Amino acid sequence: MLKSLKNKWFGHKPRSSGGDGIYASIDELLEQRQYISYLKSFHRRLTSSRQSGDVKSAFRGRGIELEELRAYNYGDDVRDIDWRVTARKLSPFTRLYNEEKDREIYVLLDLSPYMAFGTRKELKSVAAAKITALLAWLCLEHKDRFGLCIFDGANEQTFKPSNNRGGVVAMLKKVAEASQNILNNQKVESQSLSKPLKIMSHLIKGRASMFVVSDFSRFDLDCQKSLAQMSRKCDIYCIDVFDVLEDTAPAAGEYMVSSGSGKSLIFNSSAKSFRAEYQHYFTHKREQIKDLCHKFGARYFEVRTDKDLHKQLQIF
Q: Which residue, 73, 99, 125, sits at the end of a domain?
């Protein structure tokens, strides 16, 4: 009684189940499942997996969609004979169907210290973790196998593809842990994505799709070579996560920035030359990644941390 009166007079503030944009909690990652209906399926290309799923395969077999009707050949399954056409043509004809196969979807999630940055809504690391969760739930919805590699700037955690809810939830728990651990990482310096890309290259055996979710701040020449090599055997999607401050220079005034190691710098953003150079730097970086993806047949997408992620990912 007293509790209900208290809520009526003073209002009730629901308990937050998230990390307030600082880290991605497991509850937030599980909640991403409600947004998969907003996404357009990218499961339209042919795949060559041996397990059944929702995607049409390049192999022919006993599926549900008619692929071809042709004259009966020795060795064809008699169950596939179309008796109506056979009676009309006075010669046996066989139906061939598209066999449904699943596919493997991999995500390389960059949770290095450089991703622990954000000025609006949430850090880039949180947005990247939520995007990974969205892709995981979308794969589960389409009965695909979801594999994951988490990179914290120095070490990698890889998870074999899974197409069951328990396996996906276990991966998302590791993502939530990693998004919190980088906040305690005192080492700002981190390696490039070259090593995890090479690991993914060995992990992916057949034709698959791989998403690289990162800010690409440490995307060196070795990374470019690895990406070019992987694009020959799988479909690559690069999702560039960035903060609004990396897109637009801050308002005119003096600012102090710190590297986290005791060094600081004061700069003035009022000068037009500074604002133009600032804008050019980040725009040029994204254009380089975009051109690289276009060169090797990979797809490139930009995602801002201050906007709804599922709305930006409707491009799929």
A: 99
Contact 187, 213 (CB under 8 A): no
Question: Using CB atoms within 10 A of its CB, is residue 166 exposed (0-12), middle (13-18) or buried (19+)?
Answer: exposed
- Same domain (yes/no): 86, 112: no
d(CA 61, CA 95): 10
> For 224-257, what is each residue's pLDDT tens digit?
888 888 888 888 999 999 998 888 888 888 888 7
User: In the beta sheet, which residues pair with residue 95?
Assistant: 69
d(CA 30, CA 22): 17
Question: Rounded to two decimals, what is the model's pTM?
Answer: 0.76
User: What span, in angstroms and rounded, lies between the C-alpha atoms of 297 and 237?
Assistant: 9
Are 115 and 93 in a shared domain?
A: no
Which of 293, 122, 301, 279 is closest to 215 using CA atoms? 301
